[in-house]
């Protein structure tokens, strides 16, 4: 049975552009917007499919870019010299049903519409370029993928399905990876320190994918979304109450003064609906100048005016920052656009609607007697149109379409290139281009690499996405409804010098309300230096209170999460927003306290020396001979050394002074106390020896005193020797005890040994005190035990007070306390024991005789 072609389609799609050629490149554009009737199947579904269309005139450049690229290739003898390319372009009408219908038309229809039939003239379709949106691209893919025809999408959108290229082997994208745009947005927000932003997205699958990807990225980088608002695809004029509710809600969000930065993710229609909703709520346009805001627009969003909205300006978006698909200006394309006239439009089913809507005129119609509008003259110029209706410079999407045509052409060229002989099933003859099947292009598309007419290298990544990046543009609007895009940066992982993200802040023109000051978008004011953030309970982490830095910490930047400690040799200033160099602290001879203590030590040393000289001068007098003259000299020398040892505690501590300081103090004090103990024991033994028949007489003499002094002193010397051999003292910088000072001090090495020295010295003093206290009332005319009791009482009081004071003080105060204890205890011994004797020598010489000394009470 022979299958014949069915009759012509009685309900053809009204917009298409066909240019014949040996090989055909298909295109699905997104030009027109219709309000479609609901299908009830009471009549043919196509009977009332269309109403009067609203054309997105700006997108007409996409069609012209495809036509221009095909024209250039056909005129270029170096590419496909023996073949003529043609094209067949249909429209998606921004509708799922019509996208399927247009795709089927593109695959099978010449003049009739029947799936899987190719009737009349054979149409050798080699590849299809489209679409611009997520929905359009993947509706097309559902059909095109079955036939393994290469599909080159030119829209910027993101979906998880794109990651798994094995599932869609015929799907290619002429734009860079969308993830680069997300990185660019994050880098932009961090550059300007915008941490409180609002999100507007189209209410579709692509918008949901955007939120699922973007919101975690914001959170990971310390940025919060103040709100998320979904924008409907269409404004439902048949449900004004719902539309007003949406408009009111969005107006409140836009004018919420704490949020000045808004990220808009959507399609070209998004700006139209957003502008319309704001106009419905505020028709006076006061919002244009009353509120500070920055709009950040993604690459798929463009400023387009259609239908009733064609006369609106875009002042509300003045100063916006827009990510766009990277493009280079093509001079020949601008010249091509300037030649567009009605006479040029043969076969172009889009041109009539474009020209009439863009110039607000109509072409003469013999069936209409009275024309409702001005007639189109054909002399109108595209140069005069505002940017929202049509732009003369090539857009990012048009540039992608232009590159897509060249990509297909170079892939076709490579199929019959001599270098491809071994790569195509090992055949020795070149393929005839007319016999190339679409599925055979895939291996060449995957390996494609060429330089376009702008000098840029075109290639696909391993995810079948075009390499490159995104441009960052600044929108400058003017009262005449025109606008200008200024390139202020880019996002490109392949950029030179690894400048993945670049922004030229000095080129940005902000919204007029900012007075050219860099905008601020935060939940609350910055925490100034000297403060740290304190999160508010139940709110997002970008909302916080500010609290002063705790003691010992500082913050020198805005919005620090935690205050930090200064370096070890510095401390926070009074405002806690910086660090100050710590003073080097030690007891110096140049400060008043050091001078005073040194003066006292020197004075007591001189007094002790005078006492020694006096005792040498009056060496043979009874008062000097009493109670062992040798012990007296030993005690005086020990006291002199005690006074002199205090000089080891004054001045910058060094290795030698730290090594000698505590051991010398311990040994000389033990010597002094040992002498006092020996004196006391001598008095007691001498008294006991005077009793008849006493056995103590054999102990009377110098030997007992020498044994006491040597044994007690050597014991302390042994303790100090062990100390110095095991864990000796050493110089140390203490940076923690006092915040403002670096204390230069001697570390005792072994604290245990230090307290052993003090404990042993206290034990000797306690023994001396007990013996002296017991002998204080012995019946001598000159009983030295009384004065020793007082001296030991003073000595013990001083050193018992020393311990708690020593443990509770810091820095050089510890040294002061120890010097004071040394001087006061040594002066107590000197005064209590030797002042009575000096008094007798100088003031009462008549009492300094043997009779008086030996007289009993």
Describe this structure in words.
- The structure is a single chain.
- With 857 residues, the protein is of the alpha/beta class.
- The protein folds into four domains: 16-175 and 395-423 and 435-459, Rossmann fold; 178-298 and 303-327 and 467-514, Response regulator (Rossmann fold, 3-Layer(aba) Sandwich), CATH 3.40.50.2300; 531-581, no CATH class; 592-854, Rhopdopsin 7-helix transmembrane proteins (Up-down Bundle).
- Strands 10-9-11-12-13-16-17-18 form an eight-stranded mixed sheet, with helices on both faces.
- Helix 13 runs antiparallel to helix 15 (629-645) and helix 17 (702-726) packs antiparallel against helix 18.
- The N and C termini lie far apart (162 Å).
- Residues 420-431 have low confidence and may be disordered.
Summarize the structure.
By secondary structure, this protein is of the alpha/beta class. Helices cover 39% and strands 14% of the residues.
Coarse shape: rod-shaped
How many alpha or pi helices? 21
Compute the number of structural domains: 4
Proportion of beta-strand residues: 5-15%
What proportion of the residues is helical, as a percent range?
25-40%
Largest sheet: 8 strands, mixed
Radius of gyration of CA atoms, rounded to a whole number: 51 Å
Mean pLDDT score, rounded? 81
Structural class: alpha/beta
Instruction: Describe the strand arrangement of the main beta sheet, using strand numbers.
Output: 10-9-11-12-13-16-17-18
Distance between the termini: 162 Å
Low-confidence stretches: 420-431
CATH class placement of the largest domain: Mainly Alpha
CATH architecture descriptor text of the largest domain: Up-down Bundle
CATH superfamily caption of the largest domain:
Rhodopsin 7-helix transmembrane proteins
Tell me the CATH topology of the largest domain.
Rhopdopsin 7-helix transmembrane proteins
């Amino acid at each position: 049975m022979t299958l014949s072609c069915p009759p012509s389609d009685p309900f053809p799609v009204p917009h298409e552009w066909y240019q014949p050629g040996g090989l055909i490149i298909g295109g699905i554009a997104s030009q027109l917007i219709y309000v479609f009737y609901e299908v009830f199947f009471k009549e043919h579904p196509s009977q009332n499919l269309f109403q009067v269309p609203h054309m997105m005139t700006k997108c007409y450049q996409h069609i012209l870019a495809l036509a221009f690229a095909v024209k250039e290739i056909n005129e270029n003898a170096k590419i496909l010299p023996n073949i003529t390319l043609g094209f067949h372009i249909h429209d998606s009408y921004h509708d799922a049903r019509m996208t399927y219908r247009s795709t089927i038309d593109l695959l099978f229809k010449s003049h009739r519409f029947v799936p899987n039939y190719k009737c009349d003239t054979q149409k050798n379709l080699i590849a299809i370029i489209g679409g611009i949106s997520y929905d359009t691209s993947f509706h097309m893919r559902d059909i095109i993928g079955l036939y393994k025809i290469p599909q080159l999408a030119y829209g910027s959108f993101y979906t998880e399905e794109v990651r798994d290229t094995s599932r869609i082997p015929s799907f290619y994208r002429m734009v860079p990876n969308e993830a680069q745009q997300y990185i660019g947005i994050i880098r932009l927000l961090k550059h300007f320190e915008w941490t409180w932003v609002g999100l507007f997205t189209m209410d579709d699958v692509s918008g949901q994918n955007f939120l699922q990807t973007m919101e975690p990225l914001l959170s990971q980088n310390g940025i919060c979304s103040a709100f998320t608002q979904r924008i409907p695809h269409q404004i439902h004029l048949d449900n004004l109450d719902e539309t007003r509710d949406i408009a009111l809600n969005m107006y409140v969000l836009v004018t919420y003064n704490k949020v000045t930065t808004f990220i808009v993710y959507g399609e070209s229609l998004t700006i139209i609906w957003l502008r319309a909703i704001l106009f419905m709520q505020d028709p006076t346009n006061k919002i244009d100048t009353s509120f500070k805001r920055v709009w950040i627009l993604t690459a798929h969003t463009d400023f387009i005016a259609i239908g009733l909205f064609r006369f609106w300006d875009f002042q509300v978006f003045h100063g916006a920052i827009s990510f766009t698909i990277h493009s280079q200006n093509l001079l020949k394309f601008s010249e091509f656009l300037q030649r567009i006239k009605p006479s040029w439009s043969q076969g172009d089913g889009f041109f009539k609607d474009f020209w009439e809507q863009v110039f607000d005129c109509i072409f003469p119609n013999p069936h209409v007697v009275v024309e409702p509008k001005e007639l189109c003259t054909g002399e109108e110029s595209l140069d005069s149109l505002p940017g929202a209706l049509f732009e003369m410079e090539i857009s990012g999407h048009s540039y992608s379409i232009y590159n897509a045509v060249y990509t297909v052409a170079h892939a076709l060229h490579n199929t019959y290139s001599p270098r491809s002989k071994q790569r195509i099933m090992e055949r020795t003859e070149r393929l005839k281009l007319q016999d190339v099947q679409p599925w055979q292009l895939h291996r060449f598309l995957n390996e494609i690499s060429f330089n376009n007419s702008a000098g840029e290298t075109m290639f696909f990544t391993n995810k079948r996405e075009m390499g490159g990046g995104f441009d960052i543009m600044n929108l400058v609007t003017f009262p005449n409804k025109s606008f200008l895009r200024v390139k202020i940066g880019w996002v490109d992982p392949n950029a030179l010098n690894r400048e993945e993200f670049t922004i030229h802040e000095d080129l940005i023109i902000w919204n007029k309300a900012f007075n050219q000051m860099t905008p601020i978008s935060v939940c609350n004011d910055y925490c100034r230096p000297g403060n740290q953030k304190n999160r508010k309970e139940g709110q997002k982490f970008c909302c916080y209170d500010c609290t002063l830095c705790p003691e010992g910490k500082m913050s020198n930047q805005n919005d620090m999460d935690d205050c930090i400690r200064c370096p070890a040799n510095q401390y926070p200033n009074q405002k806690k927003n910086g660090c100050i160099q710590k003073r080097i602290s030690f007891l110096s001879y140049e400060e008043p306290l050091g001078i005073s203590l040194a003066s006292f030590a020197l004075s007591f040393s001189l007094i002790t020396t005078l006492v020694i000289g006096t005792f040498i001068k009056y060496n043979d007098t009874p008062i000097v001979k009493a109670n062992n003259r040798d012990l007296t000299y030993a005690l005086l020398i020990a006291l002199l050394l005690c006074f002199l040892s205090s000089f080891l505690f004054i001045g910058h501590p060094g290795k030698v002074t730290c090594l000698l300081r505590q051991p010398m103090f311990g040994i000389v004090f033990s010597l002094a106390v040992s002498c006092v103990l020996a004196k006391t024991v001598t008095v007691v033994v001498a008294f006991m020896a005077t009793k008849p028949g006493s056995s103590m007489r054999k102990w009377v003499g110098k030997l007992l005193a020498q044994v006491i002094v040597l044994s007690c002193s050597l014991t302390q010397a042994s303790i100090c020797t062990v100390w110095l051999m095991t864990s000796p003292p050493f110089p140390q910088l203490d940076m923690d005890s006092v915040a403002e000072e670096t204390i230069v001090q001697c570390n005792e090495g072994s604290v245990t040994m230090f307290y052993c020295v003090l404990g042993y010295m206290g034990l000797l003093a306690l023994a001396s005190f007990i013996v002296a206290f017991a002998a204080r009332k012995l019946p001598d005319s000159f009983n030295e035990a009384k004065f020793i009791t007082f001296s030991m009482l003073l000595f013990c009081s001083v050193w018992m007070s020393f311990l708690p004071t020593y443990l509770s003080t810091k820095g050089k105060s510890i040294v002061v306390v120890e010097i004071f204890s040394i001087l006061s205890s040594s002066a107590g011994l000197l005064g209590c024991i030797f002042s009575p004797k000096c008094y007798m020598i100088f003031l009462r010489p008549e009492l300094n005789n043997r009779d008086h000394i030996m007289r009993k009470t």
